[in-house]
Amino acid sequence: MKTKLLLFLALVLSGGLFGCSTSAPNQSVGLPLRYHNSQYDLTFFLPASWKGYSVLIQQWDAELRSTDYQKVIGSERGPIVLLRHPQWKTNDSYQDIPIIVFTQQQWEGEHQGKFFPYAGGIIYEMWHNRKYVFGEYSRYNAYDEVKGWKEADDIIATNCAAHTARTLYPNP
């Protein structure tokens, strides 16, 4: 229990649970595999141990609420690019790396509280380009009994550090 508490405190103090750091130089040192999605202009690097990984495209969906939050006036949806460890099996899962994709307009709406794709938690901006914002759900790795959760967290942190542009909104 004490080890988990110390790990939690280390992650909080380092920013590991609160979005990506953007202060490191623009490089992905030590991550030789390159995933690129041309539709979203998303590039993500993975370690050699992920050779043979798979990519699943899922979808997030959220109710769009009126300004008084009393009525559902529509919905917002978008893709989740899910990078899956090559050793993942149905009965022996490894931590996935989900990258939530928002248009810039959706990201603005999410920050204004017009919708939220998940119950609880926070979505942090990993980085953005001219059209899209790439997010990470704060509870994506909530089950530390899943194999590879720490490795996935480190991979995300390395990729985030490679993007030096400021986030559109400050991460909490």
Can you characterise this structure?
- By secondary structure, this protein is an alpha+beta fold.
- The protein has three helices and seven strands.
- The strands form two sheets. The chain has a five-stranded antiparallel sheet. A two-stranded antiparallel ribbon has the order 1-2.
- A hairpin with a 4-residue loop joins strand 1 and strand 2.
- The longest helix has 13 residues.
- The relative contact order is 0.22.
- The N terminus is likely disordered.
Order of helices and strands: HEEEEEHEEH
Question: Helical residue percent?
Answer: 10-25%
Number of strands: 7
Number of helices: 3
- Largest β sheet strand count, sense and barrel closure: 5 strands, antiparallel
Could you list the spans in which at least 5 consecutive residues all have pLDDT below 50?
A: 1-19, 21-27
Q: Record the strand order, biggest sheet.
A: 3-4-5-7-6
**Class by helix and strand content?**
alpha+beta
Q: What is the global morphology? A: globular
Kindly estimate the percentage of residues that lie in beta strands according to DSSP.
Answer: 25-35%
Mean pLDDT: 80
Give the end-to-end Cα distance, rounded to a whole number of Å.
26 Å
Report Rg: 16 Å
How is this fold's topology laid out?
Elements: H1 2-14, E1 33-37, E2 42-46, E3 54-65, E4 72-84, E5 97-103, H2 104-111, E6 123-128, E7 132-137, H3 149-161
Antiparallel strand pairs: 1-2, 3-4, 4-5, 5-7, 6-7
